[in-house]
Amino acid sequence: MLGPIDQHLDAFRQQRSVQAGSLIISLFGDAVLPRGGTVWLGSLIRLLEPLGLNERLVRTAVFRLVKDGWLEATTQGRRSNYALSDSGRRRFEDASRLIYAAQAPEWDRRWRLIFLIGELTAKEREHIRRALFWQGFGALNDGCFIHPGADLAAAFDGLVADGLGPYLKNLMPLQAADARTGLSASNKDIAEQAWDLGDLSAAYERFAATYLPLLVALSGDASAGLRDEDAFLVRTLLIHDYRRLLLRDPELPEVLLPTDWPGQRVRLLCKDIYRRLLGPSERHLDQHLSLADGSVPVAGPTLLARFRDDDPLLSLHRAG
């Protein structure tokens, strides 16, 4: 095994606690969804065991994900297949437009605003704020939330999915074009007011410091000793870590970001590593990802479109 890859996998295994549910969702979206979206529980357990997740931990996490509406089960004899629910699939497909995009989307220079209207308790306002935060919205104050490119209809659908449908009557969505004068605040001033990007920038830098040695190890002849299983494990952790970063990223266009923002550099790093791991990791999945009846689902064409400039998901996102 390659030294940096060995160290990376060992570091994950030695963690005192692992958010197994979040890791399973990353695996479903990255590896299972392109192969039809369904996997036998026993196969899932075998795929994750080399990362130090035992059978009991995986079963507990899967049952919790079913309870929380992320996964759904179908039985076949004494075995069970699991798939992303309609809601879970929608959530990951929305995330996929960011995870596997070759580059950041362009900006139409219009702000998307959501105003809170009417009487709401502090607790209700906080619930709405947190739900919008996870959709990338920043806050100008406790009654105005803003984003440069969000789909407002999708944002409201997300609030309904989060159980906040009764509060839609208290939300006013608007779009606003830049009409400033030379003496007024700039778009970048608005971004600095609405988002604290310092912690996110530091997280991107930590990601780069963690994964750059792996890219070196995977370059040229140095990758000759890479096993298919290790390629799959590193690919899973790569997308898991990158997905968690993007959950915190409001996806601001470049014109609104601080100078030397590391987001696009990290995106290219993730793309380069992923494309190098794709072939051997798929060979591992061909051998070890199966359904309850023993059949092995094959990957669809969307897999090869990931991180490509002509990715149809990226084109759809830009059009939206």
Automatic annotation (TrEMBL):
**Domain Transcriptional repressor PaaX-like C-terminal positions:** 195-286
GO terms (BP aspect): DNA-templated transcription
Start and end of every Transcriptional repressor PaaX-like N-terminal domain? 20-88
- Per its UniProt record, what SUPFAM superfamilies does this chain match? Winged helix' DNA-binding domain
The record's InterPro entries line, in alphabetical order, gives: PaaX-like_central, PaaX-like_N, PaaX_C, PaaX_trns_reg, WH-like_DNA-bd_sf, WH_DNA-bd_sf
Q: Which PANTHER family does the UniProt entry name for this protein?
A: PHENYLACETIC ACID REGULATOR-RELATED TRANSCRIPTIONAL REPRESSOR (PTHR30319), TRANSCRIPTIONAL REPRESSOR PAAX (PTHR30319:SF1)
Q: Which NCBIfam families match?
A: PaaX_trns_reg
**Name listed for the protein in its UniProt record:** Transcriptional regulator, PaaX family
* Organism of this sequence: Insolitispirillum peregrinum
Q: What is the lineage of its organism?
A: Bacteria, Pseudomonadati, Pseudomonadota, Alphaproteobacteria, Rhodospirillales
